[in-house]
Design a protein that fits this description.
Layout lengths: L17 E5 L1 H14 L5 E9 L2 E10 L15 H13 L3 E10 L7 H5 L7 E8 L2 E11 L7 E9 L2 E2 L4
Parallel strand pairs: 1-7, 4-5
Antiparallel strand pairs: 2-3, 2-4, 5-6, 6-7, 7-8
Length: 168
């Protein structure tokens, strides 16, 4: 398995304030999804429960990348598919806790486009870097802020079934 630096940050001021707790199976599934769709971006939805420490994910649900004209560097989940996923989650007592996508041949850091197109305040956004078809680094960012005009990404710690991703 590649390097997973959920604890490291290129921005020293961005200390983790939230923890994303993720079952190892879901973590591995989203990384496999990223490898399978290479050289295009994959995307999906994270379902779980809110806790005082952050989100506790129960499942990562694959979604189709509806951004067909530039799927190598953009992703979009079709509104109909997202509504279908949300209805299924509610039936099971789960919430949309966040989203995941991949960055083919780019780092696992959010881009200006990622921030501009992120609208689910309080949700986690997980990004996996894929280099030459192999999932490398996976990071998570909480979309923080009280309204669209002041939203920002804050680095999150990823914990896999009680351990920190990258500590393997």
């Amino acid at each position: 398995m590649g390097r997973n630096s959920a604890m490291e940050s290129s921005d020293a001021k961005a200390a983790p304030v939230s923890t994303l707790r993720l079952p190892r199976a879901a973590y591995l599934a989203l990384r496999v999804h990223a490898e399978e769709t290479y050289p295009h971006e994959c995307c999906g939805v994270l379902l779980g429960h809110s806790t005082p420490e952050g989100w506790r994910i129960e499942e990562a649900v694959r979604a189709a990348n509806a951004h067909t004209d530039s799927a190598h560097n953009r992703y979009c989940i079709a509104p109909k598919e997202l509504v279908k996923i949300e209805i299924g989650a509610r039936r099971r007592g789960l919430q949309i806790a966040g989203f995941y996508h991949s960055h083919p041949d780019h780092g696992a850091q959010w881009s200006a486009t990622d921030l501009a197109e992120a609208h689910w305040l309080g949700c986690s956004y997980v990004i996996t870097a894929v280099a030459q078809g192999k999932a490398m680094e996976t990071n998570s960012f909480l979309l923080s802020g009280t309204r669209e005009e002041c939203k920002r990404f804050v680095r999150e710690v990823i914990r896999l079934d009680g351990e920190t991703a990258g500590a393997e």
